[in-house]
Amino acid sequence: MVTRWIRRSALLAALVAIVVGTATPTQRAEAAEADAAYAMGYFKESISGAGNVNALHLAVSDDGREWTPLNDNNAVLTPTAGTKGIRDPFLYRLRDGGWVVLATDIPVGGSFTKPNQYIHVWTSPDLVTWSQDRLLKVNGTNKSSYSWAPALHWDAVRAAYGITFSTVPPGFSHSVIAVSYTTDFVGATDPAIFHDTGSGIIDSHVVTGSDGANYLYYKDNASGRLTGARSASVEPGSFVTYTDGVAENPCTEAPTLVKSLTSSTWMLWGDTFCPNARFDLWQGDLLSGRWSKVGRQAYTAPLNAKHNTVHPITAADRERLVARYGTTSWNLLKSFNFPGHHVRHAHFEGRIGELPFDPYQDAQWRLRTGLAGGGTVSFESVNYPGHYLRQQGYTVRLVRDDGTSDFAADASFRRVAGLADATWSSFRSVRYPTRYLRHSSFSLRIDEVTTATERGDATFDVVR
User: Fold this and answer.
1) CB burial class (10 A; 0-12, 13-18, 19+) of residue 18?
2) Does 314 have pLDDT greater than 50?
3) Is the pLDDT of residue 4 over 90?
4) What is the distance between the alpha carbons of residues 195 and 270, in angstroms, rounded to a whole number?
5) C-alpha angle 459/375/351, rounded to 5°?
6) Contact 253, 272 (CB under 8 A)
7) Which of 159, 105, 100 is nearest to 130 (CA)?
């Protein structure tokens, strides 16, 4: 069985080779014939706010679970209209094959509840050539409320796109899901109430034509859950609750439904704001509304991503995105037995810590050709260039390279199949070949590994 990191690395190598013009015919064929993939859009926040970026970011994935940020996890679309800031992006393929991104108009530090009748719109024929940012009035008869989290679906009866969003209608004291219709994303109808439970609801996602029905998922503020409703049509007011859905905690919001490309399974992503910039994932059956939690070993969202949107793309789309924006120049190392934790440095001590945290750059590493030579790897800090993870007396610290052969041996490792899971990775010390990089009580060490617990401690996933 080919391991997950080898498959992922091989595909990205083929795409990069295409970008730089060195691809072999085999690599071009592999990229062109790859199974369809996914694109994710998001904005970014971090615990302290230092990583907040209210602009559109993109990532790609083979399976909708493990994500590779594009453009070094920097923005690909920066808003220029309205408040010059966005939240809650929504990516959608149009019926003519083009694309649109919608987003809430809120800048970094802006008021969430400030009245705003407008949302942001970008359109594109190919995901890499984008129109100018423009505003679309979707809340034309409501000057006193916000227009949050726009989402999109096709309404065949109206032959128009329905834009659902959260707002408090005139005369109401609670939020509802409203809908406005457009055919050109230049003008839109006045809003109607799409779904109202009698108490506050936000963050809609409509899926049409699945098993002969249409589905609406939203955050129910009263229950704190991501709740599902169903209808035979997409008429406003026609959806009826059929499942209580899911929640990790009362801060769970922003449901995103994603159909598997290889089975009938669905994924349901949920964002959270306590702590901020963390996603939970469930899998299940959309028809029955039964969902089970996915362990964090099985998915990795982009660093600091917030309120995601996920849409299937073709292999050609993915190739074009990687060619235009590139991926990342750094990696994260995720712990196998504490999968919410990642290798980091803290006060120059090597540790694993649970993301999100600040400074988040402490978890970013450039995997260099090992200082001890070919066939080895060394971990250079992104925010302390020239500093590497080095063992000293079996403990691991972040230390500046002094150019000596001793340093090179102490800071180099041989990457091997994961001791606890061969699809992950373990790192054997060059200085002490019977010892492996591991965590013990969350501190990094190099130790001989004999027990199942120690094998888990010494297993990591190299992610982006």
Assistant:
1) buried
2) yes
3) no
4) 20
5) 35
6) yes
7) 100
